[in-house]
Amino acid sequence: MKRFLLPVLMALTAMVWGMGAKEVKAQDNSSSTLARITQSGVLKVGVNPLFKPFSFEQDGKRVGVDADIAALLAEKMGVKLQLVVPDSFGDLIPMVQSGQIDVVMAGMSITFDRAMVVDFSQPYFETGLSILANKGRLGKLGAGQVKDYDALIERLNNNGKMSKLVIAVTKGKSPEKAVPQFFPGAQIAQFDSNEAAAEAVLAGKADIMVHDEMFLKVWLHDNAKTAQFVVTVFDRPFKPDNYGFAVAKGNLDFVHMLDTFILAELQGNGRVIEYMSNYIPVKAQVSIRSFNITDDVYGGD
Known about the structure:
By secondary structure, the protein is an alpha/beta fold. Strands 7, 8, 9, 10, 11 and 12 form a six-stranded mixed beta sheet that branches. Strands 4-1-5 form a three-stranded parallel beta sheet, with helices on both faces. It has a two-stranded antiparallel sheet with strand order 2-3. It has 13 helices and 15 strands. The relative contact order is 0.15. The chain folds into two domains: 37-124 and 244-294, D-Maltodextrin-Binding Protein, domain 2 (3-Layer(aba) Sandwich), CATH 3.40.190.10; 129-239, Periplasmic binding protein-like II (D-Maltodextrin-Binding Protein, domain 2, 3-Layer(aba) Sandwich).
């Protein structure tokens, strides 16, 4: 009897496991972001509320590098594009987790903490953390002539002024977490937006601002008339930073497709720099992964 029951039980178990596997597979397919995009015919992309030149409003329209990239992706996928602008940058990850958007394209730095809750594509833009410095305030700290991070740290450590350094950062952005590591003992002043932090340095409420090189140089370019003789941007980033697309966890098929899109359509064709040149005059310095605003734009309208 036992010899007869054992094969029957094994067969029933295999059937149950097989049905379960099919059910799980069906659930996975039905919840796949890529499948949802294909079925709906719409790609919902979350962008940064304000991060020129990646995402900003111009003549009442949402434009920028990320908006252009999103349009290209939608075209390649054969679907319509819906750009979604959240109230704040911090809303983007919860929105992609809940399915309100399909992917984040927002100049979002790839960090370990974020990778714990979303899946990232490979980098589509390489930049780095740099420093916007108030020349006069650094002079009072005995560091008025320094031009890079290493020289600044050496000077402040030698004269014992590191604890006097006031650093402006944007709440919730990756530079906020990097500052204590790279400026141990310095004072940190938090601001609600990138622009507010930069304005604080210009107004002398902070000595420096630490943020992505691209934002700092674009901000200085846009505010050249009032800022160019007061503040400066160190030309060489001191910490590499990479932007990636973010999707909800468990969508490896979508991540793989995005990786291929980045390799074949963005990096292979130089489209990121092409799109960027639509909004600001830039030239890439490939050897140090840096970007310079061309000289002839300062002092213009």
